[in-house]
Amino acid sequence: MVSNNSCVADESAASPRLLDRVRGRLRVKHYSPRTETAYLGWIRRYIMFHGKRHPAGMGKPQVEAFLTSLAVERRVAASTQAQALSALLFLYREVLAVELPWLDAVTRAKQPSRLPTVLTQAETAALLGRVADSECQLILRLLYGSGMRLLECLQLRVKDLCLTRREIVVRGGKGGKDRVTMVPARLAVALHAQLARVRALHEADRVAGRGDACLPDDMALAHPRLPYGFGWQYVFPAAGLSVDPQSGRLRRQHVCAKRIQRAVKKAAQDAGLTKLVSVHTLRHSFATHLLESGCDIRSVQELLGHSDVSTTMIYCHALNSGERAVPSPLDGLLDSQSFPRRSTPT
User: Fold this and answer.
1) What's the number of domains the chain is made of?
2) How far is CA 131 from the centre of its chain?
3) pTM, 2 dp
4) Active-site residue set
């Protein structure tokens, strides 16, 4: 008879192999590196939550208990709980080939209805003017001027930036969709200089026997010389080389996202902004300022890459503020004499 302790040891020893299977399946289905990291993290937490039991020996009750604990005990956001659920469904359906029934007993975290933080044009100018790092400033100006998400900008390739037509082709955006957005005319000179710097850096890498870029969907297998082309280089490359987590090769990646996030946080503090500002705030401000200037909402929808116009409609809240707002009835009173005075006790 095998003891319970030996069973746990066997299951714990098997978990690294399980995670390798999950990682391999994620890559076969072309999930992004960030999704891979998130899914593996949630699967580890799920296994540890149930005392290192192997997921093959668990099912619906254990999944429901874990997700309910996230909502009730840890009080995570609804989006966080949804991501954990997606990770576990991927594990059971794609790796263990187990179809879980509808998880109706899960206590769902409430999805709050929040309005995005939007800066005024004066606040945006103050924020961008406080960024000391010239490369970070160029990236942030491009984010505000084009409406791209941070990683869409950092993963931008030279071939997808056309300064002649002043357009950017965003490849594989959220939901795996391509779209076209604009290049601000004010950034043309700075972007020309950036591309010249990238070319010089790429030529130096080629001389050193490197210079190959990471290609999507294993295109390098069919075109071995393609990764060395200038068009596949990042518009905003990192200063040094690092190991590519997907291939294990030493390559020049793009600028680190945390560097840009730290620059925004510091610039917001230096500018004295009281709003909770993040890099994504620039995307919100891009959409709102276009709508305020009279741009058609369908055009804004296409520039942002939203599938449904209802998603873009959230930015219309700003149109009911400032000079365009519905006047308050308080502002319709003739003067302050209309207010009754409070009687003071004697």
Assistant:
1) 2
2) 21
3) 0.79
4) 149, 174, 280, 283, 306, 315
